[in-house]
Amino acid sequence: MDPRDRVAPQEFARDLLRRLFEAALAAAEPARAIAPAMPSPVAGRTVVVGAGKAAAAMARAFEARWSGPLEGLVVTRRGHAVACQRVEVVEASHPVPDAAGEAAARRILELASGLGADDQLVFLVSGGGSALLALPAPGLTLADKQAVTRALLRCGATIGEINCVRKHLSAIKGGRLAAAAAPARVVTLAISDVPGDDPAVIASGPTVPDPTSFADARAVLAKYGVAEPAAVIAHLEAAHDETPKPGDALFAAARYTLVASPQQALAAAADAAQAAGVTPIVLSDRIEGESRDVGLMHAAIALQLAAGRLRVGAGPAPLPAVLLSGGETTVTVRGEGRGGRNSEFLLALAAALDGADGIAALACDTDGIDGTEDNAGAILFPDSIARAAAAGLDIKVALGGNDSYGFFAALGDLIVTGPTLTNVNDFRAILAFPRPRG
What we know:
It is a single chain. The chain is α/β, with parallel strands linked by helices. The chain has 2 domains: about 5-25 and about 265-430, 3-Layer(aba) Sandwich (glycerate kinase, domain 1); about 30-260, Rossmann fold (3-Layer(aba) Sandwich), CATH 3.40.50.10180. About 40% of the residues lie in helices and about 20% in strands. The protein is built from 16 helices and 14 strands. It has helices at about 10-25, 30-35, 55-65, 100-115, 130, 140-155, 160-165, 175-180, 215-225, 230-240, 260-275, 290-305, 340-355, 385-390, 395-400, 405-410; strands spanning about 45-50, 70-75, 90, 120-125, 185-190, 255-260, 280-290, 310, 315, 320-330, 360-365, 375-380, 415, 425-430. The strands form 3 sheets. It has a 6-stranded parallel sheet. A 6-stranded mixed sheet has the order 7-10-14-11-12-13, sandwiched between helices. The chain has a two-stranded antiparallel sheet with strand order 8-9. A hairpin with a 2-residue loop joins strand 8 and strand 9. It starts with 8 loop residues before the first helix and ends in a 6-residue tail after the last strand.
């Protein structure tokens, strides 16, 4: 007897979707990811620095495998710290930077600047590092950077666009940390949270060449109509001290290793689905765009799958099947509700599916925090809209007010994990399952 016959479809869906998310997180766990990429010792000092939501967990994993002398400092998001013995851990604000992040970034730059030719700087980087390394360029203030960050977050700019601007307002991003460490060897171990895994975008690339320019940063602000603070506009117009570019000799001795990525997480989830007798279909690990628009697109594919018309190879994908995707969507804030991009994706998906039978979905941020809320994301079932209506909630009102958190909280369908201590960005799984056999 098929084990799916022994449980209700909703119970089967909830259990499977949670297990797929857990498999994705396990694939990006820092201790597992760092082990194969440990650098060799050098004659001089080894200094570990880092930034990101996984930075503290990465530092702990690194020092557990490093037998020689070690020192350093990493900065992570508040609530994401873990105890380390030899590497100091500082917590700071994300996504809008704060004074703690500014102070930590200054100290990290000072540590790098004190190294010589026999030393090495190990940079542990993960998603969120750009906001956490908040060291303004000369002539700018933390308040200037906070204002620009808030404006770009609200208007729906992509992470690549935001980080292009950040690099040109910074004294440490866009390759400047590597420049400060020269002539020491620079080793970067990265957990990617960006579509395409571009090293120059992950945490704004403090140790890699920057292909973007001041002109590119000005174009981003112009695109979204961001015209202040005045000091930022003046700094970008002056265009002094451009970031180091590809081909610069200072990167000749630098080594960069991607230790975990969104694609690896999706592959692990696909393996878990297949082991459970569910057909996995990996759409992409680099989907961007407005969360509600991405939700509409996924709904169309899910309906095709559930109807037995999504062809894979010689015929339709056998059910049950799961659509898997990742990337980083955005939300243009129009209302006063609460929620993050993953729960907003699910809200738009629910509206488009309109209670279609046999489809359930989970969408979560792999760092455990969807936007600025306390949930990783949420889960959706065929009866979600009906249950919401019975509780007096209108899905169109919720979507119009960006209140995805309130909608799913009322249903008891938020996914709350707490900080996961890793980050490979959005994880989406949409399950199409057959009706129970009679």
